[in-house]
Amino acid sequence: MTPLTHADLEIRLLKREPAGYPVELSLDNQRMFRGGFITPDIADWTPRRLDAEAGRELFNLLVQDDLVRSAWDLIRGARPQRRIRLSIDSSAPNLYAVPWELMQEVGEGGIGVNLAASDATPFSRYIALSQEYGEPVRAYPLKIVVAVASPANLSDYPGGLMEIDPDQEYDALQVAVDGLPVELIRIPQPCTLEAIDAALSNGAHVLHLIAHGALSRHGRAVILLANRNNQVRHIYADEHAGLLALHARDAAQRPDALRLVFLASCQSATADPTDAFRAFAPRLVQAGVPAVLAMQDLVPINTARAFTQAFYRQLLRHGEVDLASNQARAALLSGRWPAAHVPVLFMRLTDGQLLAPNPARTALENILADPRFSFFDPANGKYIPLPVEAVHITGHQDLSQFQAAGGESTASIDIWNALEEVLERHTPHDGHGDGPRVLALLGGYGSNRGTQLKRIVWNTARMSLNPGEADFVLPVYIDLETMPSTSLASNDLIEKLVAEKLEAIWPGAAAVTSGLLAGREPLLRFVFNTDDSLPEREQAAWLNRLRQFIIQHPQHQYVVGANLETFDARWFAGLDQHLLILQPMSRRRIRHFLQHLPANDRGGLPLLERLDRFGIYDLAAVPWFMVKLLSHARDGTYPESRTQMLGKIVDDAVAGTVDRMTRSSQTPTLNRQGLHSHIDQILNALAWRLQSGRVRELSLADAFAIMKAVRGDREYSLERMVEALVANRLLTTYGIDSLRFAYGRIQAYCCAREIIARPDREESLDDITSTLGRLSRLHWWEETLVFSAGLLAGDADAVAPFLEIMVYGMNLLESERTFLAARCLSEAANQPPPEEIASLNDTVTAALIWRLQSTNEPDSAQRSRAAELLGQIASPRAVEQLAKTAYYQTRLDRRGGAAYDYSNVRMAAIIGLLRMGETDQEELLAGIDLVLTELLYLWQSRDVPLLIEWLDQDVNTSAQGLAAMALGDLHMQLKLSPEGQPAAQQAIDALADKFLHGEMDEATHWAVAYALATVDLPTVRQAVLIPLLNNLDTLLPPGARGLQQLKCLAYLIGLVRWQSPEARAFLLERCIRDAADPNLMAVAIDALARLADTRDRLLMEAIAQGEPPADAAPHFASFSAPNQQYLRRKAIDALASLGNEDSLANLRQRRGGPAGWNQDLEQALYRTSEEIFWRQYRDDGLTLRVRS
Asked: SS3 for 139-206, per residue?
């Protein structure tokens, strides 16, 4: 965002002639427009009301002459941003009284644009003066002499004047300038002209005078000050203006010369003082004061104070007095304050630049011009605004719960929205400490962390320069990745870096850095990006220095980007920690993003169709891969499978590596094709070593040994090759002596290439697939096996035996194997498939349908995965089952009754149906229910009003639930475009109203809660969560409806992972401690598992053992045995998120306790053990290395 450049438009109103008042328009002192007139009646213009209609009437009077109108239109068309200086000839004094600041020009759509309240048209009454103003001064702090005249005998003055309270007026001005770089110099009582003169003689930039004004018996303009005895003294414009203006002379040589007089009148006067002020103001300018603000009518006290506050804040942002005056009027209009037109600015400046621009503003503009940050300006068209989101947690959670979480996220928040929540609105939470607040943005390689940190810098600078912002927030970006490691040992590292970065953007920062750090204006927002390659000890050392820096300067804001894998909450011990963990982009968000790209963008709907057809959302979920997919699509290359697309990405990166090596090589004998082949072999060998060794990284010594074996005696540098591979994002360094693949999927793909190329391929694959019994091993090999299927897809003789092993070599009705087999079949799919593979498809489809039944698969997350994969298969049989799952009651509840499946399962089924074309939907769904077809049509056509009608009807419960989910999904789609935002608001309003006040059955209530969870967290928090929690007893219906509302509220809190003390207290106290209902307690346990706060681990262990503390769950002992059993299983499931190895040991030791143990609990414990083992193995594996 660059500052507006205004053309200079001077409008001169001259001495009256018979035809009226002549009008001249001069543009940039070059183009002159003459010959027009204003009607002579304008001097007597008295509208009935001084409102917008009067403003339009006044403007039309100004341009009613055809010559004036045509000149105005020509100028406006050529220069929309123009500084308007209205110059009224001294021989036309009657025109001074016209409230020109009221003028409104009718713009597009018939909307009035107030010329004196628009950033595009800074407005003033100009008085030409031959005296040069000189260079604007850097007046920081701005010295303001505050004079409040309250003579003791005001009440005796003719007409009776009300007393002015000096203390009250001074206090109000203090409030108006609070936080600004301003020094107020107060004139003591009595407020005499001599006291004002003395204060100005000591140096001041502004005189802010609050007094009564009047016209003397002889019609002379007077301001009522006090004499030495505190009695009224008349100060005459024609006699005393020159005395005040003496302090404005030689402004170019005196940095503390008078620049501005602010004449504030008092509404309590019985006689109108404004003629006196209006007469005094031009006299002051004529005498040499650069600018004078005065009131041209009576103004309410609150209006005057609001104007004063906005005016000084804007003036100190950019120094342009006419623009500040316009912006202050705009603030009055937007706040609906009356009499916005009353303040009038007289000045002798041609450019309005009363003060030099605030150096903070200059620094912000420098930031926006920096190529690292201007990259994000939409005008450049370079940045792709991917729907990158994060989960906001408090630091009490096991962070491994949030690493690369799969599925459809219902708890993510936009990075910028989260930052505003934490830093701007100061969201409370029960973090680790009460010290200064720090926001950590956590993500691994390729998570878009570095890009998002730079986007925070750009957006902060852009928003700070927004005219609507009251105060500057100056971002300071410090990237350790660009720092030489030797400099990190310095004890004053942070201070040196801050001084260096400020010096690069702030004029003369070296002299003011210590003051900037110690002060509060401007607020500094430090954005640090850590270096992932730093050894653990060095990283901990510099982060400790950063922690001390934050403690020393708590008034500023801090954002720290770090690697999730290495993050330790102890880094910021004692600070108020907020953690944002970057998440893979969800399927729904990717769809919304692509659907809203321009219709002619080949990376939009055409790419979306390929993502749907080949089911490669997991690849697109990684920002770096998504950028590559978009780039290829816009070049006309679309994915045919995830294997083919990843192969293309790897091949391009290897080609980039070859280019880099050959450009820097001094050996002309390097053969590009041969080098490309060697690099492929090296990557494959490295991947196989890592994958077969079940580690994430290799020591450099081991990595170079593998590379040397492939290179042989060829003449190229392995060190340069590693540098090129890192630069092309295939490999990355880890610490000072380790190497790893930049992305796990690239490692899996290269390992699959190595397996397929091996002579013992079948034996290798058989060895791998025969040992997939443990969840950890299956997860470790899953991606490699899927890529192996993709690489074999073109060889029917080879792929069929492999797929048969995947399908028949394992029990498809158990664990994760069903999904692995389905993914392999999908990756190897050919249309039409060979007969033997078609048979395998039928078998896997049957297994997925079996897993979609709640009686066979109790875990709704697994049923959701089955629905997703069936949507990918999209056979008639699969579509039929998806339709039934979405629309009918296919689940059995605890009592054995028919019920709708959980909303996440229904949503997965619906997304599978939405992937089909409209014709396919009509043909395949005709036998299910026509209402389902209609709802899908309304969903895809984004018809919010009709969907709301389906939500509000109470005849068809199935349709109600689907309409709710459609509205939640559409809210997120529609808000992406300005034209869709009203409908988006309509959708969220309907859902919120239904949740808070609507009567509905239980199934619809759950669906509405889930729909709200698909909306961004800040929106749903403001629309539903805070209103309901703050007024729970008032809004809670009686009886069963109230109980259902509590369950749905607990469910919603868990889904959105609302990390707030109030939310957690509600779950622990209202839903577990105080609840006498086991179902409510079960929902609360699920929600606590989603929040993943490790402080709840012991409670879950106690419930799992059947012996919760009486003070935590007093009603547990009174529940029936089946209900206790149900809650114990829920608690064991929750420990998959909250538990650790100690939890497992405790449960195993207590299995023979008084509460007993059975097979159902044992199975739950096994599943939880597998999840904990995989989580801890995955985390530990990140730091294991293969040693020779």
From this structure: CCCEEEEEEECCCCCHHHCCCCCCCCCHHHHHHHHHHHCCCCCEEEEECCCCCCHHHHHHHHHCCCCE
Which alpha helices (DSSP H) does 236-290 contain, by range?
A: 237-245, 274-287
Closest of 2, 3, 117 to residue 52, by C-alpha: 117
- pLDDT bracket for residue 179 (50, 70, 90): confident
Instruction: Tell which residue, 190, 173, 180, 170, has the closest CA to residue 232.
Output: 190
- Beta-sheet strands, E only, within 162-279: 182-186, 206-210, 212-215, 221-226, 232-236, 260-264
Residue range 142-312+351-357, CATH number: 3.40.50
Assess contact for 3 and 318: CB atoms under 8 A: yes
- The model's pLDDT over 708-760, given as tens digits with 9 standing for 90+, comes to 998 887 777 888 899 999 999 999 887 678 899 999 999 999 999 999 999 98
Reported as a single tens digit per residue, the pLDDT across 258-281 is 899 999 865 333 334 445 555 778
Q: Report how far residue 856's alpha carbon sits from residue 694's, in angstroms, rounded to the nearest whole number.
A: 33
Nearest to 722 by CA among 643, 671, 644, 664: 664
Domain 642-745 falls in which CATH fold?
A: Arc Repressor Mutant, subunit A (1.10.10)
pLDDT bucket at 511, cuts 50 / 70 / 90: confident
Q: Which residue would you say has higher pLDDT here, 676 or 1175?
A: 676
Q: How far is CA 754 from CA 686, 748, 788, 880, in A?
A: 10, 10, 9, 40
Classify the C-alpha dihedral 1042-1043-1047-1053 as positive or negative.
positive
Which residue(s) pair with 346 in the sheet?
125, 292
Q: 135 is written with which tokens?
A: 């260079």
Q: What is the pLDDT of residues 688-721, one digit of tens each?
A: 999 999 888 899 999 999 999 988 877 778 888 9
- What pLDDT is stored for residue 337 in this prediction? 87
Helices (H) and strands (E) in the chain, counts: 48, 29
Which backbone phi and psi does 212 adopt, to 5 degrees?
A: -85, 145
Are the beta carbons of 410 and 1014 closer than 8 angstroms?
A: yes
Q: Which residue, 953, 918, 911, is CA-closest to 934? A: 918
What's the CA gap between 1164 and 396, in Å, rounded? 25
Class of domain 361-584: alpha beta
* Phi, psi for residue 966 in degrees, rounded to 5: -65, -40
pLDDT at 1187 > cutoff 60: no
Helix (H) or strand (E) holding 147: strand 142-148
Q: Are strands 473-479 and 523-529 parallel, antiparallel or unpaired?
A: parallel
pLDDT digits over 1097-1129, tens only? 999 999 999 999 999 999 999 999 999 999 999
Cis upstream peptide for 190 (omega within 30°):
yes
The amino acid that residue 619 corresponds to is: L
Contacting residues for 958 by C-beta, under 8 A, at least 6 apart: 887, 888, 900, 929, 931, 932
For residue 1073, the 8-state DSSP code is I
Helix (H, G, I), strand (E, B) or coil at 946: helix
Range of weakest confidence among 179-183, 473-477, 1018-1022, 1141-1145: 179-183
Q: What is the pLDDT of residues 558-575, one digit of tens each?
A: 999 998 888 888 888 889
> How many Å is the maximal CA-CA distance in the chain?
114
Give Cα separations from 74 to 33, 70, 79, 80, 594 (angstroms): 10, 6, 9, 10, 42
pLDDT score, position 1185: 32
Bridge partners of 474?
Answer: 524
Residue pLDDT, tens place only, 801-812: 888 877 776 666
Residue with tokens 């360094």: 733
Q: How many CA atoms lie within 13 A of 2 on its CB side?
A: 8
Q: Which amino acid is at 498?
A: V
Amino acid at residue number 674? G
Sequence length of the chain is: 1188
Instruction: Report the alpha-carbon angle 527-533-536, nearest 5.
Output: 90
Whether a cis peptide bond, with omega within 30° of 0, leads into 834 is no
**pLDDT at residue 248 in the model:** 72
Contact 102, 58 (CB under 8 A): yes
